[in-house]
Design goal:
Arc Repressor Mutant, subunit A, mainly alpha, two-stranded antiparallel ribbon, Rna Polymerase Sigma Factor, Chain: A, elongated, 170 residues, RNA_pol_sigma70_r4_t2
Length: 170
């Protein structure tokens, strides 16, 4: 295959590669960059392409490997290792360090909400939480299994309402 034919084949297949690049990067500009990098690598390594094999599959492989390499490079670039005497590892990226206070407040609110439940709902709910099966709770409390399921359902519903402030917005 001549250089001109190879170049023409690359150009013809570039349209088919664009959706794959978009799927990988989820950004139009990054997808265009990835497509361009793929085409440059393919053209510079045209001597490694075996004529008669699937050019499109070869290009997809180059694109996937280029994406993975760029991603790994980006992750490595975000971390800086301090080699001074005190050997601190610093992360230069924007990171969030949690001190656990939010979790402590949430757990305190959860325990309070459970304590505020009526015993008729709290007891079966806590037994189920501790691992008891519905039939075991029914036997222990001497109530029908349907009542156990209903009370646990109501307890969950009440807790969900009480703790709605912690609902994640997606």
């Amino acid at each position: 295959m001549t250089t001109l034919e190879f170049s023409y084949s690359l150009h013809k297949l570039s349209g088919a590669l664009k959706p794959f690049a978009l799927k990988l990067t989820r950004d139009v500009d990054d997808a265009n960059d990835l497509l361009q990098d793929t085409m440059v690598k393919a053209f510079t390594n045209k001597d490694k392409f075996t004529e008669g094999t699937n050019l499109k599959a070869w290009l997809y492989t180059i694109m996937k490997n280029t994406f993975i390499t760029n991603y790994q490079r980006m992750v490595r670039r975000g971390t800086f290792v301090d080699t001074t005497d005190n050997l601190h590892y610093l992360n230069s990226g924007d990171t969030l360090v949690e001190n656990g206070a939010y979790g402590d407040f949430a757990m305190e609110d959860i325990y309070t909400a459970i304590e505020n439940l009526d015993d008729v709902y709290k007891v079966p709910f806590m037994m189920h939480y501790r691992g008891f099966k519905y039939h075991e709770i029914a036997d222990k409390l001497e109530i029908p299994i349907g009542t156990v399921k209903n009370r646990i359902h109501i307890a969950r519903k009440l807790l969900k309402e009480e703790l709605s402030v912690y609902k994640h917005k997606s």
